[in-house]
Amino acid sequence: MTFLAIRKALLAKPKKMRGWIFCAGIGLTILLALLAIYRPVFFHFLDYKVYDTILRSNSSAGSPRTPAEPVIIDIDEKSLARFGQWPWPRYRVGILLEKISKLGAASISLDIVFPEPDRTSLSAVREDILREYGTRLDLTGIPATLQDNDIILADILSRGPFVLGYSFLFTNGKNPAADCPRQPLPAAIMEQNGTTAAPVDLFRAMGATCSISSLGRAASGSGFFNVIPDDDGVLRRVPLLIEYQGKLFPSLSLATFMHARQIKQAVLKTSSGRLESIVLPDISIPVDSKANLLVRYRDARAPISHFSALDIMEDAVARKSIEGKIVFLGASAVGLEEYRTTPLAAAVPGTEIHATIVDNILKKEFFYRPYWAPGFELLLVIFCGIFSSLLLSWTRSLLGVSVLAVCCTGLWIASGWALRTKGIFISPLLPLVTLVGNFSLLTFVKYWREEQTVKSRNKDLVAMQNFTIQCLAALTETRDSETGRHIERCQHYVKLLSEQLAKNPKYSEILDEETIDLLYRSASLHDIGKVGIPDSILLKPATLTADEYREMKKHTIYGREAILRAEHLYGKDVKDSFLQFGKIIAYSHHEKWDGSGYPEGLSGEDIPLFGRIMAVADVYDAIICKRRYKPAFSHEDAAEIIIRNKGTHFDPTAVEAFQEIQEEFHKVAQQLPDE
Question: Does the global pTM surpass 0.85?
Fold first, then answer.
């Protein structure tokens, strides 16, 4: 293979890896794009939480909003303490309403329903006493109009700018009156294609609970006070219209605003039968297809003004605080008001929610989610997916995570800015999930691919090491071909003996699986020093002389020096390499336990463990094999010789381990005979 071909092969692997990473990112992007289209319920829940978080951060970080225009009159604890428990006699409610009207309120909305006649009226009390006790109260001299509290309240309602509340029912039920509710919303339909069909997705009620007919006829306006929380129980949006018996009815807040501004008709702007906005003179209220308004709640720094009903009754409220303003009357005392959870507070009175909606309309400050928002979010998902896939495929991880962190921060800030300045909610959820998901997935793919590459390189390295060892061992065999498969058998003996010794607690930590593998591969280097011995000595068929034997013993030194030179070329970091193991074995496998061995005459545990293991394996194989200077002995003879030399030639522990597995030694010798 030429140099250019090798270079091309090396460069092709990273490109192929980048392709894998990019494809994985695109696959995840497609999955998230499908989720952006179909929007599972779980993602709606997460969108709600993202919206709440952005709304809270905007409320705490922005400057305080201008004071609210509506005013709330509370029938609170101190009012009940002064005038008695609720419900009050309706003449007293009438007095309260008349006082508010005289202070110049533009419109007065009652977040209260009176579904039954007042049982505290004199006429009702007379009937109760007559029925229970058989005694008739004498009401002579009391005008008939004063004997019925409902007549008193109806008279006051007929003379002021009052809007009554009622509640729709969404289960089967009977209306308390045939004309309940009385006042539908006069509305014109403005459809893009010119049709005038009513919107199709509105909430449809099945019944209603209204105030008694005399009060309903007397009031100049009415509206429902139903609110419908999201699935998680948080009230983020409120319907401004509900369909009932084929007619459209306004919410209490919308009816109150229209009454205060004397607006007689609304225009419903629709597209393909889906409601988009409610248009009033100079005001377009953005809503969703169900006529829900996304309420722009006020934070605690700019609350809606509250006055106690007691202060109104005692004329303790200045006229300028009420004059020209829209007033909501509600009961905030414990047990009377229904509280709702909003994104900014855990408990908000329902009356305050209606007042907040009117404040949104008066100031033209709306939050809304335009019809094109889902499509825009889908485009963001696709863009973020492709961008992050390219980025993570072609850049290093540190740069990639830095850029993606900036992108995530930018998406979050941009979404908050759009809500704060434009009133538009674009959810950053799925684009953020795309960026984070691609980073997690592609980082994992990168790691997995790198792990596979490292494994492959390690495998190649091990193969190279084995090849190097076999080449060195083959070099020894070329000098002394009579040894046959001695090196191969010794490798297996060393492995068997090491595995048996590893069962001994003394050696279990030293002889781990990796060490035993290195010993197995390094054992073939034990006689590498013989390449430095002259043929006249190495191949001599007779007994060596003393001088020749001294020269033969030098093969341990030659072996260590050869490996030391290899280490010098290989590098310094060879603490656990096969060369380090081979050096120890080559130099010390002829040392004896009693100190009579060579080259240093070491004794006992001063002899390296690996040399003591190799000594048993080498001597066993030398005994059972035929050599030019000796015949072959049987396995039994070899085992008897080794056992007899326990504690003199050999490490006693190594011999004990050999005794346990000597039959395994015999099997290896039979399976790998000399050729």
Answer: no
